[in-house]
Amino acid sequence: MKSDEAADSDEVKSDERRDDTMTTQEVRSWTRVCTTTTIAPGEATVLDVDPPVALWNVDGEFYATDDTCTHEKYSLAESYLDGCIVECALHWAKFDLRTGESSGPPASGGLRTYPVLVDGDEIFVDLSSRTPR
Ligand code: FES
After folding, report:
1. Domain total for the chain?
2. Domain CATH number, residue 17
3. What is the DSSP letter of 3?
4. pTM for this model (two decimals)
């Protein structure tokens, strides 16, 4: 599902927001993407960026990963979520939203993950700090 609200993101410069785990050397570039009520628990929304990023709500915890399966071009946000594990609806590859790791073939590798910050009811994602595949 795509969210109009998610598509209308506001970029926030890194000096304005910092997460609790940052050291003084880390600088984040947070982009406001939506509110906590935009995504129901057990659902995801796709951020309109390139490559597409899926933002997941797992019982009130939010995770951001690549949206496209590493096996073939298929949206994981359109797949099955069981806790923090998403199972691709096309050929059943599984990925852990917390780490991006895959459980193996047919996935060709893991997903990139992105830092997420929840401030009140606003959700921010650092789209510039994705993990490598
Ligand atoms: S496209 Fe996802 S497992 Fe094949």
Report:
1. 1
2. 2.102.10.10
3. -
4. 0.81
